[in-house]
Amino acid sequence: MGANELSMQLWRERELLEMLIFKLEEQRLLLESGGMRWIHFSTREIEQVLERLRESGLGRDVEVAALAREWGVAEPATLNQLLDAAPTESWREIFSDHRVALTSLMSEVAQLKGSNEVHLRAAGRVVEETLAGLDSSAGVYDTHGGRAREDQARIVDREM
To answer: Which UniProt keywords apply (predicted)?
Structure first.
């Protein structure tokens, strides 16, 4: 039965979106706490969830196409078109609930993504300002590893 498979696929996508929200929250907390050291791990985990979502989206498209054929809906069909063509009220309700939940989750993802981008841009500016403020000269160090004064004369052996 195609409706059941599509519903299960939509549940998987909802779970992946919740995992993405968790990973974005994790990244936001790292950014707010200044934990830039771990951002690359967080980014990699977000990319892994996004890849799983892309794969899940392909599976959803297959299930939507199968259900559209079963319910006599022209392809490519949307979830709204399937809702309109649902043979029973229970399937309309189930797919309507999926649509509401997916819309809400995507809205939350967009909000967190925007917030994280603001934090990342701010962190980038801080790094740029820090690098710009660094003294470009390496200076001279004495035999004990301390920084030698810049105004001292240096002996240069010109004879070889």
So the answer is: Cell projection, Cilium, Flagellum
